[in-house]
Amino acid sequence: MTLSYAALGSSFASGPGIAPVVDVAAMRSGANYPHRLARLLGADLTDLTVSGATTATILAEQLPGLPESADLVTVTAGGNDLRYMGSMLHTAWHRLRPRGIAAKMLAAEFPDGLVEPTAADVARAVAGLAEIVDRVRERAPRARVLLVDYLTVVGEQTVPAPGVPFEPDEIERFRGIQTTLEEVFVTAAATSGADLVAVSGISRDHGLGAADPWISPFTTDPATTHGSLHPNARGMAAVANEIAKDGSTTAPA
């Protein structure tokens, strides 16, 4: 029996900037980790991932497309709830193109400058992930639900450099948000009873500035900027391989 696999999530699942593009509006790649995992498992894939999604938009816009027959569901979200990538992109664009359209658009999200995620932000992200798990189980009762966290962006090798347009104190701030996001997943998994695939742990040595980075550097090139600071093809392959290691992701008998 062929495994039915559905993917929910935001840009760290959808794969902006990675060819081939299969949905321009969603910035969804045909080589993102859901597509790679489906090939590894020989599964039928329903890829609902959308760049920019929050836990709230997944509940409202992605859950209705989830097949009730799904056997496996992966969820990668929460970063946008904490404005993780928004903070990094806001900083990068304001440093390199402060009068550009991107900088002006991002400024609307940060009218008072960068702010750390509050306790309320963290609680909402945890609750959002837990609710996604609950709603998946209601809609697809036989599905195994995996929370898949975010690849490491800021590693020990991450320092100011071309493609890393940040000051040392900014890098530490982003590292702090990254750690908070990892803790959100741990708490959400414990709260919901979902299994956690912590790809943050396998990617410590593959952040920005590493010898073998799994994250694309920041660029202002219009043709490639949408993939800035997001997983590259090697990173997506690593995530798919890590999930596939678990023998329980095989097709039901």
UniProtKB/TrEMBL annotation:
Keywords: Hydrolase
Keyword Hydrolase tagged: yes
Annotated InterPro entries: SEST-like, SGNH_hydro, SGNH_hydro_sf
EC number from the UniProt entry: 3.1.-.-
CDD domains (alphabetical): SEST_like
A Pfam family of this chain: Lipase_GDSL_2
Domain SGNH hydrolase-type esterase residue range list: 7-238
EC main group: hydrolase
Molecular function GO labels: hydrolase activity
Protein name as catalogued: SGNH/GDSL hydrolase family protein
Organism for this UniProt entry: Actinoplanes oblitus
Native organism taxonomy: Bacteria, Bacillati, Actinomycetota, Actinomycetes, Micromonosporales
